[in-house]
């Protein structure tokens, strides 16, 4: 959520010494991709001069490859990418972070929805102005890409939504035919959980806007537990830290909301800034990112989490239990999370999208040289939101089903 509070993070290459910079022979990778064997950079030596002093200003690129490119740390990543994966730009609007969060892909329309940044100089939003929700037609994207081997810039349309929609930051679905959004709220207007019709006139229905009479802090991300219609959402205090929300009145927590009964309760706490959330396909395991390292305009503390935590979902209560570290991010911090059907975990991080296998081993990155807050699987591939740009990666992996009927 918070990448734009710093503007686009400046990610610079870290080139290893000449003896460690080359990819290992014998590994066939997609065109433009780079295989980096961990054994080749485990030791850099006492004379190494390019140590990274901050995870927020240094991307690990030992082959010094020009972005965007696919970076492979484990050959199992090739099962996700396929043999001919490429990264191509499909939309761009320099100077405006139009594609930041809340990606929802609607297969029946072949349309991708998303929200602009709700903070920072590129968001054009704050205490007095809300972010906007946009959409891009993936059929038009496919046609444009088929007509050239270069990047394209397909038109993005902005939805005209009611004033009840303030600072959309998380989204999933389709949820019973609608877009399921969580908003961070703005000024004294409360954060909320809502559904929006993906078709004009985009009617809005607010499902929840308080915790027993208290406003939430600034809702960040949301997912539905597979096989149910029960929603789980994160609530950090970024709205206050960035300056478009009052001081928080609740801890930074993860909530469960059952719209059929109206019951809302906390299922996990002890986070600095809970951010992205995603379930495995069977709903037995959940991942929650903590971007505690970044307190937006309040500064950075590299001793705080840049971590994805893994929990078991209690089958009876649906509380999150048995918390453990799944992965610590080496660049930036983990934001939104998605899973593919092979169990790989994707998260938006400092220089693009990182991918881990189900054991928490980093197997690859989609290296953009810019911060990516979120991504979503579509029929055309993996769409990566990178604030001022959207990229499409034509990988063979498929995302877990996010549709609730």
Automatic annotation (TrEMBL):
Keyword set includes Zinc: no
Taxonomic classification: Eukaryota, Fungi, Dikarya, Basidiomycota, Agaricomycotina
Keywords (A to Z) from UniProt: Signal
Extent of the signal sequence: 1-21
Record field: transmembrane: none
Protein name as annotated: SMP-30/Gluconolactonase/LRE-like region domain-containing protein
Domain SMP-30/Gluconolactonase/LRE-like region: 194-364
Classification via InterPro entries: 6-blade_b-propeller_TolB-like (IPR011042), Oryzine_lactonohydrolase (IPR052988), SGL (IPR013658)
UniProt superkingdom: Eukaryota
Keyword S-adenosyl-L-methionine attached: no
